[in-house]
Amino acid sequence: MLHVLRRIVLEVGAASNLAEALEIIVRRVKQELTIDVCSVYLRAPEADGQRLLLMASEGLNPDSVGTVVMNSGEGLVGLVAERAEPVNLENAPDHPRFKYFPETGEERYHAFLGVPIIHNRRLLGVLVAQQRERRRFDDEHVAFLITLAAQLAGAISHAELIGEVGKRREEIQQDNLQIAGIPGAAGVAVGQGVVAYALADLESVPDRDADSIEHEEAAFRQAVKEVQDELIEIKDRMEDVLPMEERLLFDAYVMMLGSDSLVNGTVDRIRGGSWAPAALRDTVRESTRNFEDMDDPYLRERASDVRDIGRRILMRLQSHVREPEEFPEHTILLGEDVTATQLAEVPPDRLAAVVSSRGTGSSHVAILARAMGIPAVMGVSDLPVGRLEGRQIVVDGYRGNLYIQPTAELLEEFKHLQDEEKELAEGLRDLAQEPAITQDGVEVPVYANSGLLADIAPSIQSGADGIGLYRTEVPFMIRERFPGEDEQTQIYREILKSFNPRPVTLRTLDVGGDKALPYFPVTEDNPFLGWRGIRITLDHPEIFLTQLRAMLRASQGLTNLHILFPMISSLGELKGAMQLLQRARDELLDEHYVIPVPKVGVMVEVPSAVYLSEALARRVDFLSVGTNDLVQYLLAVDRNNPRVADLYNGLHPAVLHALDQAAQGAHRAGKTISVCGEMAADPASVILLLGMEIDALSVNVAALARVKWVIRSFSRERSRELLRQCIKMEEPAAIRALLDNALVQAGLGGLVRAGKA
User: Which residue range or ranges hold the GAF domain (predicted)?
Assistant: First the structure.
């Protein structure tokens, strides 16, 4: 049966539309199970999905397909839908819920087996098998249909998004189709879909021997030169749209084209006898393999950059140059994996929003979208890209949703929100430069999160009080070896000098397990609980000492270096890290460097650190809560996994109790505690963090002004009162409602309305 199931799934996957897929299902199931009837009923989208429509059948009267409709609790099919479990009957007419539909001709059939079609807890329809003779279907048949229905669920859900269900019958055409993704950049937009398709498909390149190694190498080097020139031209074109620091991204792409790993790796393969496209393909695969397996969203996106460069080189090798496209006035750029260069190709005055099937808020395209002030939705796994060209689309970058075929009412609502958003942004522009002081006079510094040198200048201009989290992994990821002490010192020095005397927190190397370095791979069954962060650096003091020495050397003559240790789960780990830090400083003092004593902190991102917060804080200068990881570990939810993404909630009562306990532990030890991550940028969560007396927040630059607005609109006492109420509540939705109401009462309704769009 497994072999048959695979064959059916492959055939269905190759179908061009839902109707064809359903016809394949009913025909093949009837054939393979040697039964008399196989039918599929789907929920109609109108009337709150309370009706089931016969969409395909092999064995019933063909004229009944598309005409037989029943309520979800009506008949045996309705019983399956109601129970959401299989119904297996020897003689269906004997069952009290049996209902006869004359137009189907099913009076001849006695045996009945119905299984629900469920996708992400939502009932889509029912798959039915029937037979003339009286019999109960055996366990093998039941298991087969259940498995097939599960496979069918994804295809139906995908088809619903593009209106395929509606194409079968005019009256059930669905408007306002909502697709959920991951918020990438805040804002709302209304416009016309334009698909950004891959100009060249590296994975389709076949193996082939080079006819002339010299010719292949020359063609490849010429292609690299043309892509370099193209990227420089794109950067110049964006001069009036992006600040110079953000345009450095394209300089980084040009530098990547001159790197040993990409160019020399490809040339070596060509000289080994491969033709240029295949040599390029294998080099790009090697360069991206480690990145693609990473869990860290920020670092995983670097694979997308390498793939984009590889595609552009391949396009030149294939002598195919895409002509400039005509973009509509309000372009919604969509794609399977939208890249920074594809985004930059759209005239800035016509680009309204960007939507990508892959990626997160840490991807370069999301970073650029925020810099350009346009909304972005990333990680839309069910995005039917090929069907959205020219379609009218609404993009909600706050909640990570988009709507296809919006009604006039929905359009009016979002256009009203656009006007409000514009007014709000203009009103907050000056506020961003003001200190964040609560209404009872408590100043709460708001720092910026960063991971690229290109982020530094925008962070300074945004009014950030410093850098609350700088990820140091990137220099390690883009090289073919561990970066040397001098290289690291230069990078860290530039960051520290840019913000001096404002604090800059450098997090030590946080790789391993799910974030393996290309030259230091780590393969584990469970990377989330594996060898990563401080565990690796403690096991390899030669790597750790080099980085610590570089950080300390970079701080000469400055007083703003803060060092942050990630993934600390025990006092023993902290003790080991502190000993190595002291050793690094002693070595530099012996070498006659003048090194100030840096402030040292611990990241609270695993549950054990919450319980040890007071003990940890007594041994360091500050704590910093990484809410993204902490929420995932507390709730056992991967927030980038669409199957469980709805379970990820920073306002879960367990999360609030953990944060409050960590804050109390730090303060009992007389130390400060900050919060970085998505919770620090969520207006509702900020209220509770104020109530917990969190001392500082660290957010992405785009959220900085809004966070300052929240802080300046509440007193500590009012926040404590709301915290006391929320900490007793049991449901995240109720907590969210209470906090949203508090925001509205404080005059911050614009944040709530935008968040609920």
Answer: 17-166
Catalytic (active site) residue 676: yes
Q: What is the C-alpha to C-alpha distance for residues 616 and 612, in angstroms, rounded to an integer?
A: 6
Domain final position from 370, 389, 420: 420
Q: Report how many domains make up the chain.
A: 4
Asked if 284 and 205 touch (Cβ cutoff 8 Å), the reply is no
CATH code assigned at 115: 3.30.450.40
Percent of the chain with pLDDT over 70: 82
Which of 443, 448, 388, 2 has its CA nearest to residue 245? Answer: 448
Q: Residue 531 phi/psi, 5° resolution?
A: -85, 100
**544 and 639, same domain (yes or no):** yes
* Residue 506 β-bridge partners: 470, 563
Whole-angstrom Cα distance, residue 670 to residue 188?
A: 43
Residue 60 has pLDDT above 80, yes or no: yes
Query: Does residue 379 share a domain with residue 241?
Result: no
Query: Residue 22 and residue 39: Cα distance in Å, rounded?
Result: 9
Tell me the pTM: 0.69
Residue partners of 358: CB distance under 8 A and separation at least 6: 304, 336, 337, 378, 379
Domain limits for position 510: 421-753
Q: Does residue 515 share a domain with residue 555?
A: yes
Asked if 726 is an active-site residue, the reply is no
- Whether 166 contacts 172, CB under 8 Å: yes
Do the domain assignments include residue 249?
yes
Query: Same domain, yes or no, for 274 and 357?
Result: no
Positive or negative torsion for Cα 483, 486, 490, 493? positive
- Which of the following is catalytic: 119, 141, 158, 676? 676
Helix-strand-coil percent breakdown of the chain, rounded to 5? 50, 15, 30
Q: Reply yes or no: is the peptide bond before residue 375 cis, omega within 30 of 0.
A: no
**687, part of any domain:** yes
Q: With 70 as the cut, is the pLDDT of residue 671 above it?
A: yes
* 247: CATH: 1.10.274.10
Locate all alpha helices (DSSP H) within 438-570, ordered by sequence: 456-461, 474-477, 485-499, 534-539, 541-554
In the set 364, 562, 652, 667, the catalytic residue is 364
pLDDT per position as a tens digit, 356-396: 987 766 566 776 787 677 899 988 876 777 667 778 899 99
